[in-house]
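Record 1 of the preview.
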Amino acid sequence: DPILDISFDSQDGKSLTDSVSPDAPAKLEGENKLVPGKRGSAVLFTGDDAVKTTKGNFGRHEPFSISLWIQIPDSKERAVLFHRSRAWTDAASRGYELLIEDGKLKWSLIHFWPGNAISIKTKTDLPLNQWIHVTATYDGSSRADGLSIYLQGHRSDCEVIRDGLTKQITGGGYDFIDLGERFRDRGFKGGLIDDFQVYAECLTAWEVQNLFGADWYADFHGTNSESEFTKGLFVEHYIHKKSERIQKLKATLREERRKLYELQDKVHEIMVMRELPTRKPAYVLTRGEYNLRADQVEPGTPAALSPFPEDLPRNRLGLARWTVAKDHPLTARVTVNRVWQSIFGRGLVKTSEDFGSQGSRPLYPQVLDALAVRFIESGWNMKDLVKTILMSDTYQQRSVSDRSNMEDDPDNELLARGPRFRLPAEMIRDNALAASGLLDLARGGPPVNPYEMSESFKPAKWSDGSGVYRRSLYTHWRRTGPPPALLAFDAPRRAVCTAKRERTDSPLQALVLLNGIQYVEAARALADRLIRESADDSALIENAFWICLSRAPDDQERAIVNRLLVDQRKEFEASEDRTKEFLQIGRFAANPDIPPPKLASVTVLCQVLMNHDSCVVKR
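->
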């Protein structure tokens, strides 16, 4: 029995009676109207308005069938007969749909079109201006061979368009079937639909012919080939619908599919490219005009690089293998140069973004080649490459040098001293959080909003819980608008690819370190830790230097910092309101047993050290 049965013969205003659920009628929207149909009345569609039903939310483990009569007024390149989805391209068509495409029927179940879907299409064109009985069935298998289209009671010969459904088809914001129209898609303009029925089972061919209205008595009792075919359909129907053993097995199969699909739905997906079955031809376009084709071109690589091996396929797989081939002149060298740049502040080739004729020559070609060969022979082992560089005498030199060396070689091209450069924006922020003990090292998950997002990208809010303390890697990042606190330290905008960051010095950087919510809060958390772990001010200062600067203070620094502590403590003791306001910045709640003036003064000390040159510059 159907779960939805709309004959369009009973109307109350804009409501169309569903004989199965009279209290949940369908809605006739817009300018659609009822006209004489196949049996009684049918709907004449405008193409811009739908008939909205109240059922049809099937999962991909659930078999179902949909039957209807249609009449097509003209040849249609594309038209929606019915769908259970929110929208076309806007929502990747998630759900299921029956369309007319290029004069043929297309029946699809979709998670994300076209990458994750099953779809079939009839091979013959549909006749015009006559009533056609259509039944679309699905067996719950998530395979294209589980889809069928019946025309005039007979299974139609179909081609497979897509055969890869691995995720749910539900969701997307709309759970019921609409007829004749879809948002930002082409509706069934001028078309007629009659006797629309939905079944929560995969109908057999016998049942489909019964819906069509076949003469069973004549077919079943005849002696011709049609009669033998009909008897075969009846036997198939009896086995599938009347055999208790088959019914139990089908129920078990359905439940096991449900469990399997639930497991598959929990697996996260990423976007990937896929080769077309047949490559589209590409041409040189004269003056860039798409309709002025010149010579046809094939996939290839630049002649200036190593030749493309004849035994490799000319597709993305072949390109990947060519890229990591041992004789490729660039891949290993470019990678080694960028790793060197991240460690030393500049690459062996200064123009790390350009290894071509316009780029700089390597300062030490032999070093670059030796590291590139080692990198390849180690199996592209990045850890081995980094360790090799860090264990070298070149890296382990002191960053400080005499004046004559600095004047003669300001850019350290001779590598006569160790690297010295300001840390990247993300490392400065993460370093402050790590020193304070607030850094959340959790891996994976969605991006998070730090404090400044609530001001810079209204109405965005701070992330809940420990989200504001996660590594900068997980900070929400708009393509043309990096987080302001990172932008101040030369984090690039991601509108274009950046191989080498610029390094600038500006007063704004000091203001961020002294006044930014993230840094003030980190300083207070570090102050709380230092007070709890230190016996007196002398030990506190010692610990603060080791945590922030990785060294002990000299006598002069100790005296300056000690005087700072005393002065700040007096100032905060003199202004209770200022102290309270200062200690409420950020979310971190300090130990209530610590006197507020003491906590505030040590917080200022930590701010000073976090703003110190040795805390933000690598030496």
